[in-house]
Amino acid sequence: MSLTNLHTISTHQIYVSLRDLEIKRAENDKLLDGLDLSGLGPKPDIFANSAFIGYGIDFRKNSIADIQAWYTQANLSAFLTPNDLTLLANYQTNPTSANRQALLNSFTHLPDEQAAARLLTAAVDARETQLNARLGFVMPESNERAALMSMFYNGGPGIIGSRLLNALQNDNRAEAWYEIRYGSNANGIYAPRRIAESNLFSLYDNPGQGVSEAEAKEVLRMYTIHQPEIQDYESHFGSLFPTGGTNTVVFQIIGAKTTLIPIYNAGKAIDGEVLVGNEFSNMLDEYGRLVLDKNDLLFGEGGNDYLHGHGGEDVLYGGTGVDRLYGVPVRITSLGGARTTTCTVVKGMTFSKVVKASIPTTSTA
Ligand SMILES: [Ca+2]
Ligand SMILES: [Ca+2]
């Protein structure tokens, strides 16, 4: 089932406005704000070895026929002269720096920001059906679709990679959010844009409102799987993810932790990790995570899991399967098999709380 609980938008016009605003901010916020109108003329794109006009209308990647069509739709045909078409043809046929410079020198400027905005709308409208083709389904006009269109405009079909596609097709919002925010910046220059797009896409079904238990587990399962990579990414782009700031995953998962902790903390003050496994065998270990020897809450879920709480007062749920639960200082073993509600606690175990199955009827040594 494809992504559900979309933040749908009531009219096509409002959708287009939101979509284009997201793209304008990312492509040229100074033109949008009227602070720098140089984007009304052609500009070099050094990184892409290309040139563009307005809000990222690329002169090399787009066909001349498409560019002409967008100018026509935007009622801007008078600003695409025969000389401009010759410059474009020369550059596309032979993309030398001399031909690019000729284009930069004399390509006709757009008259104003509104013209650039109309041209962008035409260029993005043309990609709407291409996004459907890439997704394999028609996502309704929504915040989520606007976020994906911003990515698509920026990176073409390839930016919707196989893992993002899989998450979208299988209704895994948290994984899709992760892929947009942390997994779609291969060339390293779009980290701010991906943060903005993932924020628009939203990690939660209903931001600012209640988070269901199932949704909380989906979010924390994503976190459990990807936290080491996320940590690396956030460190690499440290200025975008200041410690304690809202951009960090630590902040983003607070809503999910706030749902699960009161239900499952078994009276312990959980101040460490909340890790959630999947239906396969998992190794959930406080070590290697952000903080050590805190009070952690670990859910093995299905499969035969190893749960390691280490120091602190941890609450461990093996879930179904034959699970091994470890606290500190010595091993606690639960080998009862699926749905067994008791576990063996090695004598001397004094700091960890062990929970087998899904009800916190616990044994503490
Ligand atoms: Ca711990
Ligand atoms: Ca299990």
General description of the model:
By secondary structure, the protein is α/β, with parallel strands linked by helices. The protein has twelve helices and ten strands. Helix 3 packs antiparallel against helix 4, helix 8 packs parallel to helix 10 (213-236) and helix 10 (213-236) crosses helix 12 (254-264). The longest helix is centred in the middle third of the chain and has 24 residues, at 213-236. Residues 329-353 and 355-365 have low confidence and may be disordered. One calcium ion binds at residues 300-303, 305, 318-321, 323. One calcium ion is lined by residues 272, 286, 293-294, 296, 309-312, 314.
Using DSSP, what is the number of strands? 10
Radius of gyration: 26 Å
Categorize the overall geometry: elongated
Determine the strand fraction and express it as a percent band: 5-15%
List the helices and strands in order.
HEEEHHHHHHHHHHHEEEEEEE
Taking all residues together, what is the mean pLDDT?
Answer: 88
Query: Can you list the strand order of the major beta sheet?
Result: 4-6-8-10
Question: How would a textbook summarize the main sheet?
Answer: 4 strands, parallel
Distance between the termini: 45 Å
Structural class: alpha/beta
Low-confidence stretches: 329-353, 355-365
The percent range for helix content is 40-55%
The number of helical segments is: 12
Bound compounds, each kind once, are: calcium ion
